[in-house]
């Protein structure tokens, strides 16, 4: 169950990062409120997952899900540029996440 919590925490990290962007520097109320709620949920689920998943593994996977997820949201919803270097960086992050999961107790 901890891995599921960690996955959801990572998805919530993507949501709060996107909401932060949409808040326009915290000048828009609804995206700011969404950001605060999803940020709190993300941190809470990360903490719950860390009860059984080692710190280094949990934190690395959480930030990796957030980084790659934000990258994909940026491309699909915000029309951010896509190029070989950026895609390769995301592939390397995902590769690192898989390796971290496979080598964790």
TrEMBL record:
Any Gene Ontology CC annotation: plasma membrane
Subcellular localization: Cell membrane
Transmembrane segments: 27-47, 59-78, 84-102
Keyword Repeat part of the UniProt annotation: no
Membrane topology field: Multi-pass membrane protein
InterPro entries: EmrE-like (IPR037185), Small_drug/metabolite_transptr (IPR000390), Small_multidrug_res (IPR045324)
GO biological process, one term: xenobiotic detoxification by transmembrane export across the plasma membrane
Pfam family, one: Multi_Drug_Res
Record GO terms (molecular function): transmembrane transporter activity
Keyword Membrane tagged: yes
Keyword set, alphabetical order: Cell membrane, Membrane, Transmembrane, Transmembrane helix, Transport
Family under the similarity heading: Belongs to the drug/metabolite transporter (DMT) superfamily. Small multidrug resistance (SMR) (TC 2.A.7.1) family. Gdx/SugE subfamily.
Name this polypeptide is given: Guanidinium exporter
Organism of this sequence: Halomonas urumqiensis
């Amino acid at each position: 169950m901890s891995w599921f919590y960690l996955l959801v925490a990572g998805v919530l990290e993507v949501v709060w990062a996107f909401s932060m962007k949409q808040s326009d520097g915290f000048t828009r109320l609804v995206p700011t409120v969404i950001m605060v709620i999803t940020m709190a949920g993300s941190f809470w689920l990360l903490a719950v997952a860390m009860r059984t998943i080692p710190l280094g593994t949990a934190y690395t996977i959480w930030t990796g899900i957030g980084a790659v997820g934000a990258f994909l949201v940026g491309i699909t919803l915000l029309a951010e540029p896509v190029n070989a270097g950026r895609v390769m960086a995301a592939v390397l992050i995902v590769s690192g996440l898989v390796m971290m999961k496979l080598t964790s107790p």
